[in-house]
Amino acid sequence: MPGAVLSALGLTSRYNPNEKLKVNFGTPEFLSPEVVNYDQISDKTDMWSMGVITYMLLSGLSPFLGDDDTETLNNVLSGNWYFDEETFEAVSDEAKDFVSNLIVKDQR
Q1: Which of 32, 52, 66, 94 could make an SS bond with 72 (beta carbons 3.0 to 4.6 A apart)?
Q2: Distances in Å between the alpha carbon of 29 and those of 19, 48, 55, 104?
């Protein structure tokens, strides 16, 4: 829809589907690698953020949180995360599989 306004976590941008979309804003913990790298984004970009939010809802922890924004962004770019054994021991395998299929660095 031409001229649509995208809003995520209080941040907005005008979207033109005829143009490649890149964004350079967001909350570091929830950004996908393509946003951090200022690469083209797609609907899959939101799946990463949904995975991070789900991880946080299940555990109360953030999979990429660092001591500062720079460390957090580097953690996102590395794409390395894990399920803390003790924290996730009561979480179902299905829930962990759901998160694992959302927080995917290379979405191809």
Answers
A1: 66
A2: 27, 11, 12, 15
Residue 96: Cβ-neighbour burial (10 angstroms; 0-12, 13-18, 19+):
middle
Q: Is the pLDDT of residue 32 over 80?
A: yes
Q: What is the pLDDT of residues 51-93, one digit of tens each?
A: 999 999 999 999 999 999 999 999 999 999 999 999 999 999 9
How far is Cα 28 from Cα 69, in angstroms, rounded to an integer? 6
Structural domains of the chain, with CATH: 28-100 (1.10.510.10)
Does the predicted model carry a pTM greater than 0.70?
yes
Burial class (CB in 10 A: 0-12, 13-18, 19+), 68: exposed
**How far is residue 28's CA from residue 35's CA, in Å, rounded to a whole number?**
10
